[in-house]
From TrEMBL:
PANTHER family: GLYOXALASE DOMAIN-CONTAINING PROTEIN 5, GLYOXALASE FAMILY PROTEIN. PROSITE patterns: VOC. It comes from the Bacteria. It comes from Streptomyces asoensis. This is VOC family protein. It holds the Pfam family Glyoxalase. Gene3D superfamilies: 2,3-Dihydroxybiphenyl 1,2-Dioxygenase, domain 1. Residues 7-141 form the VOC domain.
Amino acid sequence: MTDNMTRLDHVVLWVRDPVAAADFYEKAVGLEPVRLPEFAAGEEPFPSVRVNEEALLDLMPLSMAERMKMLPGAAESAGHPVNHVCLALPQGDFDTLLARLEERAVPVSDVSQGSFGARGEATRSFYFRDPDGNVIEARHYD
């Protein structure tokens, strides 16, 4: 990638309890929390979890939805969930994630094959929900 290439920077997920959400994403999904101590100390409005060196999932408190005023009408649509967010993982990390979720009794969908994504058809994929009901897809490519 080059510095002038368009990239996905972050996705905002609405959550009831950002600390609990960060804990889930760290322990069940394996993503590193960012700004969690600062959020807990009241110094930052929300924490995040790092997907990779270039992308974050922001864990926005649902209580902030009414304050979304970046565009006319934004407050009325804030808190509306996206359909799902997809994480592409190496095969070993995919298998580890599936096992970790099953250990924690997190319901997961059946594992499917051949779903289309940014890099073509995925070898395998499955879906699960975080504690706030956000749907996450995990997949790997060969």
